[in-house]
Amino acid sequence: MVAATTPTVTRAGEPLPDGPPYDVTVIGAGVVGTAIARELARHPLRTALVEATDDIANGTSKANTAILHTGFDAVPGTLEARLVREGQRLLAGYAARTGIPVEPVGALLVAWDREQLDALPGLLAKAERNGHHAARLLDAEETAAREPHLGPGALGALEIPDEAVICPWTTPLAYATQAVRAGVHLHLDCPVRDLAYDDGLHTLTTGRGTLRSRLLINAAGLHADAVDRLLGLDTFTVRPRRGQLIVFDKLARDLVHHILLPVPTAAGKGVLVAPTVFGNVLLGPTAEDIDDKTATESTAEGLALLREKGRRVLPRLLDEEVTAVYAGLRAATGQEDYRITAHPDRGLITVGGIRSTGLTASMAIAAYVVSLLPEAGLDPGEPGELAPLTMPNLGEAGGRPYLDAALIARDPAHGTVVCHCERVTEGEIRDAFASTLPPRSAEGLARRTRAGNGRCQGFHCGAALRARIEEARP
Amino acid sequence: MTTRRERRVDVLVVGAGPAGLAAAAGLAAAGVPDVEVLEREQQAGGIPRHCAHGGFGTRRTGDLGGPAYALHCAAEATMAGATLRTGVTVTGWAGPRTLDATGPGGLERITARAVVLATGARERPRAARLVPGTRPTGVYTTGELQQAVHLHHQHVGTRAVVVGDEPVALAAADTLRTAGVHLVARVTEHPPRPFAAVRQAGGAPLLTRTTVTALTGRPRLTGVRVRHEYGRTTTLACDTVVFTADWIPDHELARRGGLPLDPGTKGPAHDPAYRTREPGVFAVGNLLHGGESAATAAREGRAVTGPVLRHLATGAWPAGGPPLTVTPPLEWIAPNLAGPGGGRFLLRTGRRLTAPLLVVSQDGTPLHRRRLARSVPPGSSFALTAAWLERVAPDGGAVCLRIA
Ligand SMILES: Cc1cc2nc3c(=O)[nH]c(=O)nc-3n(C[C@H](O)[C@H](O)[C@H](O)COP(=O)(O)OP(=O)(O)OC[C@H]3O[C@@H](n4cnc5c(N)ncnc54)[C@H](O)[C@@H]3O)c2cc1C
Ligand SMILES: Cc1cc2nc3c(=O)[nH]c(=O)nc-3n(C[C@H](O)[C@H](O)[C@H](O)COP(=O)(O)OP(=O)(O)OC[C@H]3O[C@@H](n4cnc5c(N)ncnc54)[C@H](O)[C@@H]3O)c2cc1C
């Protein structure tokens, strides 16, 4: 078992530690960077995780569709196909052990015209080549029986029983918590601005001073190309592909039982309708190639397109209230695969192009990256086991504290509901602030507890939540 | 395993706003022994708790500020003998008149002979209005703004835009002024009012026929992009925006209990005795129709007393009558089921009507025609007497209200 240490988490205004150089520094604390940090934490290495913003999972990792993919439709033989398949298995197991909400709802690829119907057997064969033998074809009648609220004209479907939905926020938070508890240093508010590599040692110039490290792992997501270029490497360019999504009210949840996928076309995976582990319904994402890596705004055109597609799939969904709208940027690099490469001459492993499956594949990516360490010139030593971790349950299907009589009897703070729409209790909010990685912002609190994320968007509790954040500020 | 304390009461009121408290006060005063009000907030009173401005109160109390009115309503209920429990959330139904609740004292399952839902309404937030753009800080509804300023004394911002022109928009402007925030403009999709006898909000312009097309700025709001009906666009530089009105009833509990909603109000369909389609379940206040005044909500709370008493005495639940429906520009009518009882109806229009002729008919037969002597603006309701109700055939089709 890896011994627990006092967590080292630094943020704006605090000095960076000036001890000996790190063995490994991971740049970027998204789901990929935190998974890698967690995997590194198992080894006898001095590891740092540096993140430009004030929280982990603050980039693409906070704004995706939250599906634990099987990879049934991956291009067979690619690294992505392999890591998604392995990652799904690893993460499903980890989620069960750690209390990360997962709902195994299964997916239906619904065919709306002849051409799509004709494409289903080919997709079934592809799923089988990717090792998914549970997939099967449904006729129109069975499709309608499975999803009684589908719009008119569904001709049939391909069922992928193992597709699931997962909590996108608890996952990286669990990784980072375990990593930090096992001794990984986390430096927030710490953008890496420059890199120099001399004599086998990197000097990182950050917004908060310098750090030194023998090896670098570039997990900077949308900015992985820019970080590579700081070391004179220019092998790919990230072109963001924006995905806008609409979150519908929990009162819509009963309208849909599976993840409803469109039949993929040349234009991309298309717009899906999916339940979330929080009990809402998602509609999205769009796929727009854009140039601005900060352009996470929604657009009138994007929302109109989603509503038009959603009306076809599940007409009654459009009668329900909208709870939230958001957009995430996929790190597309012009190649239908990940770009994970060791550069021994530069003391670097680049983890780029983790576009639209990175949440699912995260643990397998981490294991693969650590397996590249010897090639990159670092002996990671023998791995140990990490102390187990149980995360607070944010899932609607698991037991929520406000419904737990025994918990409330022990700790009455769990009987006081603060966020009424999401039913988040005083106890959960208190615990989030006392956790290894406490929230710094209303958004951070929402990702740890759901508080403020509900249908009223703060009409009832927004000011009270902000008061807690302000109180907790050092 | 969940263990719930099971209890029985005569009447369970859900929500201690002006409507729920008035119902509880009336029922307790009429001698119902066991009237219990559950309120999920720590203080009773509902929305007026954080309305620092005046304009509340009754003929007896005179003009009161919101918080004082909230205290007054709660005192009326408890003095009449109702049990008022705050910090207890009703979370769902376990049977037709059995509700589950969570509080620091544990989980409960309460069965009542009659249930009165009074869960209020909220303003639609930015996302529900599908306003595109960034997701910056500095975006409020009036409800959140008032709590930020009056309950938590938080810093809000420096320059604000208010979206909407209902009375609540003026309350938002007042709150911003109290907080020292400069009001840049108010924005409304509606055309200008004819004889702009409208209260000016601190001299800020009211941009009419104007829609918000996007929010800009990250992480803080930097502007509100607007478009005039005739195509002109501009960006109003500001760090704060308040989305006002555009009400949606807090109908979660009603829907989870299987109560049919009225398509216009999105509150539970109900008859003039505030009966929903579910035997023993009544509904009052803004849950029925969104943002009306506290006086209207309290009036409905008082008015439900008689029907609840009759139900407790006889157990009777007369079959519901046909629905009352409206055609545009009318947006909704409440009550919206025909049935016994009198009182008055509230209606809302989507655009200004000048001396409109209202026609009520059922299955092609006219029941009532009436010309209003005044003009009615969008965004505030107008009343119609219920005299024609007795002419409705109980087993006939839907009753239609339209403007001739
Ligand atoms: C719309 C959409 C839907 C998706 N749906 C799914 C799905 O259903 N299932 C699934 O498995 N995947 C899905 N994905 C993909 C998944 O979200 C991504 O693959 C994953 O989040 C990528 O994680 P990351 O850690 O590589 O990147 P990010 O989360 O972007 O993390 C990179 C981090 O690096 C930091 N950083 C960048 N530059 C620097 C620097 N110079 N110094 C310090 N820090 C820096 C950033 O601040 C950021 O926090 C979806 C993606 C999108 C956009
Ligand atoms: C910002 C704002 C300003 C306003 N200004 C004025 C004004 O100046 N003058 C005026 O006359 N009117 C004003 N109004 C309108 C007035 O506040 C309402 O008409 C009135 O409060 C409605 O009363 P109600 O009892 O129907 O609902 P509410 O006052 O909303 O009360 C509903 C109560 O139910 C509780 N509740 C909901 N669900 C549950 C549950 N599941 N379990 C337990 N409790 C629950 C809520 O916490 C709340 O306390 C304003 C409204 C707003 C939003």
**General form of chain B:** globular
Which ranges of chain A are low-confidence, i.e. pLDDT below 50, for 5 or more consecutive residues? Answer: none
Number of helices of chain A: 12
Rounded to an integer, what's the Rg of chain B over CA atoms? 22 Å
Largest sheet composition of chain A:
9 strands, mixed
Helix content of chain B: 10-25%
CATH class of the largest domain in chain A: Alpha Beta
Query: What's the CATH class label of the largest domain in chain B?
Result: Alpha Beta
What can you tell me about this protein's structure?
The complex is a heterodimer of chains A (about 475) and B (about 400). Chain A is of the alpha/beta class and about 475 residues long. Chain A contains twelve helices and 23 strands. In chain A, strands 1, 2, 3, 10, 11, 12, 13, 20 and 21 form a nine-stranded mixed β-sheet that branches. In chain A, α2 (about 80-100) packs across α8 (about 360-370). Chain A is globular and about 65 Å long. Helices cover about 20% and strands about 30% of the residues of chain B. Chain B contains seven helices and 26 strands. In chain B, the strands form seven sheets. In chain B, strands 1, 2, 3, 4, 5, 6 and 17 form a seven-stranded mixed β-sheet that branches. In chain B, strands 8-15-9-10-11 form a five-stranded parallel β-sheet. Chain B has a four-stranded mixed β-sheet with strand order 18-26-22-23, with no helix packed on it. In chain B, α1 (about 20-30) runs parallel beside α2 (about 65-80), α1 packs across α7 and α3 packs parallel to α4. The longest helix of chain B is centred in the N-terminal third of the chain and has 15 residues, at about 65-80. The chains are: A alpha/beta (about 475), B alpha/beta (about 400). The complex binds flavin-adenine dinucleotide (2 copies). One flavin-adenine dinucleotide binds near residues 19, 293 and 297 of chain B.
